[in-house]
Amino acid sequence: MLSRPITGMGAVASTGRGVGTLFDNLCRGITGRAELRGFDRTRFRAQHAYEVDDRPEAGEDVPARATALLIDAIAQAAADAGLGEDLSGIPILIGTGLRELRSLELWWREGTGLDDTGLHFGTALRERFDADVTHTFSNACSASLYALALGSDLLAEEGDHAPGTVIVAGVDVLTESMYGLLERVHPTPPDRVRPFDRDRTGVLMGDGAAAVVLSRETGGRRAHALLRSVAVNCDAFHVTAPSPEGIAKAMRTAYDMAGVKPKDIDLVMLHGTGTLLNDEAEATAMADALGDAASGPLMTAIKSMTGHTSGASGLMGLVMGVTALNEGRVPPTVGLEQPVQEAEEFRFVTGDAASASMNVAQLNAFGFGGINAVAIVEATA
After folding, report:
1. Which part of the chain is the Ketosynthase family 3 (KS3) domain (predicted)?
2. Is the pLDDT of residue 159 over 80?
3. Virtual CA dihedral for 212, 133, 139, 151, nearest 10 degrees?
4. At residue 347, what are phi and psi to the nearest 5 degrees?
């Protein structure tokens, strides 16, 4: 049974920068949805996305945006944990779906400068933080929770060289190729993300990065929460279609590892992509795993406001879920008016943010190829 203190957190998304600002905006129902900023809208049926507004002007993209967001989130988490600017000797594990693919696209189409070392996050992290132990994992949309599982495993190591602190992060930004691929698989081009609603039309991507600091000991600092478990599996059911059975298995494994029962779950931060298959599969799996307790926990899907931040989405949900536990507030699922049949019994938060006393949260992240990850966190007070 795990009990890893989360001693630092950082996040940036289209809805705000910094954990507190981002969480407050989500609780207010503010979304980052806007017309496409980074590339030519005339090439696409869909016209909107959830982008961080950090470009010099609309329609003009710049390389290395994923790296910049990643550095921002890690700097926030490190400062929050009192680690300072020098992160040498601290392993940094990064989960991502696309890494710096957008920089490659800009080089190919527009001839922008490209240094192949810039495609590796480790180079930039070494320059910024003197980080000398970095690893990047590309596990689709569950990548950052996979990195979290590996970071927790590192803290379980013994011996003189075992780390006492690990930083885990996730990042992704929009790329033209992925945006085009996703908008074309939907019969109707999506104009917003409406998780679990019967009238949803599909997913739209969002920029985002999140980071947490895991430690063996708190060093006298108050931990934000305790990481109790991270369960991962790969059911390999289909290249893109999810398996409710594989997802439910990951959930039950997470409960077992954390030593909790379904009735102990107070909050579920759903993966909730708003796609035609994924929401129903996730709802079916949740009902299966929770059983008689399915109507108990509050549930929300923040992709309705951040868009799908791909490899960063698991940690984004975790950081916001931990904040929800500590503040006793849960952001709403914007745009959810009529839940799909598989989710009708769930206690979705809609309209205004909900207030509740909560102790245990479940965080879901699922990716292409049946790559599933579920984390359980517990409040410290």
Report:
1. 1-379
2. no
3. -50
4. -95, 75
Candidates 235, 245, 256, 233; CA nearest to 284 is 245
The model's pTM: 0.96
Residues 6+ apart with CB under 8 A from 114: 63, 103, 104, 106, 107
- Tokens for 320, please give them: 């916001």
CA 37 to chain centre: 22
pLDDT of residue 1 exceeding 70, the answer is: no
- What is the SS3 string spanning the chain? CCCEEEEEEEEEECCEECHHHHHHHHHCCCCCCEECCCCCHHHCCCCEEECCCCCCECCECCCCHHHHHHHHHHHHHHHHCCCCCCCCCCCEEEEECCCCHHHHHHHHHHCCCCCHHHHCHHHHHHHHHCCCCEEEECCHHHHHHHHHHHHHHHHCCCCCCCCCEEEEEEEECCCHHHHHHHHHCCCCCCCCCCCCECCCCCCCEECEEEEEEEECCCCCCCCCEEEEEEEEEECCCCCCCCCHHHHHHHHHHHHHHHCCCHHHCCEEECCCCCCCCHHHHHHHHHHHHHHHHCCCCEEECCHHHHCECHHHHHHHHHHHHHHHHHHCEECCCCCCCCECHHHCCCEECCCCCEECCCCEEEEEEEECCCEEEEEEEECCC
Residue 132 exposed, middle or buried by CB count within 10 Å (0-12, 13-18, 19+): middle
Q: How many CA atoms lie within 13 A of 124 on its CB side?
A: 21
Give the mean model confidence (pLDDT) for residues 258-274: 97
Structure-token match 């992060």, residue found: 169
Tokens 């950081």, located at residue: 319
First to last CA, the chain: 19
- The answer on pLDDT for 110 being more than 90 is no
Task: Return d(Cα 180, Cα 73) in angstroms, integer.
Answer: 27
Task: Quickly tell me which residue has 């849960």 as its tokens.
Answer: 330
Tokens of 170: 């996730």
